[in-house]
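Troubleshooting entry. Yesterday's outputs looked truncated, so today I'm pasting the complete records for two proteins to confirm everything comes through intact. If either block looks cut off, that's the bug. Protein one:
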Amino acid sequence: MKLEAECNRIEKIAAGFNTHYEVFKYMKGLTQDLGMSAFLIMMLPAVELVEIGATKIITNWPAEMVDYYDSHNLMVDSPVIRRMLRSTSPFNYDVEAINIDRGEGKKLTVIDLFKRYGMEKGAYFPVHDAAGGRGAMSISGARNFSMPEMAKILFIATHIYDRLSQLTLNEKHKPVAFTESELDCLRLTAGGRKSSEIAKLLDLSENAVNNQIGSVIRKLGCTTRTQAVVSALRLNIIRV
């Protein structure tokens, strides 16, 4: 009865989320309650997506960690991604053990990065949405999880990802108003232009460009430029 009550409680909590930010707050609290450092909820990448910034849905990974991860192409040949694409079973990980077969350069880089942010251990939980799209939730810190913890967190991950998928689907039907300047800056950002380059092309100050892009990021409920571009492309707000 106690287990059934706990499952019902988790289902009710997940069903009650109305925004991505509410999910973010819940996941942050869950991570802290587990004595861990960080969480990540992501879509499993297609072949052409090689940046964590383009696949994450919500996370409290430090922005500088995401930028470093992407700038060093650490998703390419990621043993974690390979394992999740081969299986739907959750698993504990140790950053040193799971990267043992990587090339020496990347192995040392990724181990140092995750240890630097106190994320050397944890677990990944592969999940999927109603349309069959695959994703994953990870919780990272200084320890691994017991089997009972893994079972509970997998149950949570399943319901959280399902609710996030519903929220994302609803977002596609909500009109978001953008100014022409915001859309111009967003399109050029999607084309790989930096703020300084966009400023020259649009005859704006670099500060004005950053303000326009910042406004787009907020309107889309994102945290980085990369995430905003991916979201805008997914919602057909821009085309490149």
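Protein two, checking that the full record survives here as well:
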Amino acid sequence: MATRVAAATLLPVVLSLLLLPRTDSSSDDYSAFVYAGCSQGRYAASTQYASGVDSVLTSVANSAPYAPYANFTAPSDSSLVGLYQCRSDLPASVCTGCVRSAISRLSSLCSWSAGGAVQLRACFVRYGNDSFLGKQDTAVLFKKCGGTPGDAGGVAMRDSALGALVAAAAPEGGGYRAGGSGAVQAMSQCVGDLDAKACSDCVSAATRQLKAGCGYATAGEVYLGKCYARFWANGSGGFSSSAGRHGFGLVHAIATGFFASLVYVSLVI
């Protein structure tokens, strides 16, 4: 009989790293930390739930070299599931390294938590027993605007690039979209448990957040519960160290649903 554990609704802790690398894919540190969340519910060692968590995360690590997305159910408890999502435009070697780094982060940040999630630059890993699989979630978990200040022309190009993400046909097998307009590039990624419409709706919500919240910034990114979107101006340097230190604005929004009632801690190193 499976060990019953309090539902793993993800609450504190969440950490946000201000010093993000450049946004363009050519220079990303793919395993750089973005945020994490851990449930308040806990489980004990040497229980069926502990065994289930180990099984799910082992399956996640073993699958990463072969596919950008997969989900798994614990053999001992059908309510305990885990998934991972890599940026599906990147090589399998990047996905593998990122997922293994994410699992290591979960082990240190969410030790013995009934549910946990971590977002790194190129991948997302989550496990828990709170029935999140296949459910839409557009709660804003992390948002940042940065780069050097731009102008109205840059804003117009940004809006056009983000609009291209929304207009793109639902991608096959991965949920990755890319768009551009003039000097501005944009990309988005959905978690693979969303269907095509839910992915499009999530991307639309993410782009609205960036348009409404980033003003004349020349780079921005927003992470929702089941997708994220980014934009950057070519040659703008994305999120430089100076932008992080001098506060081009880390913006948080706390919403119901995934990661409800979060407490954010920002780190500057």
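Both blocks look complete. Sanity check on protein two: Residues 12-26, 237-269 have pLDDT under 50 and may be disordered.
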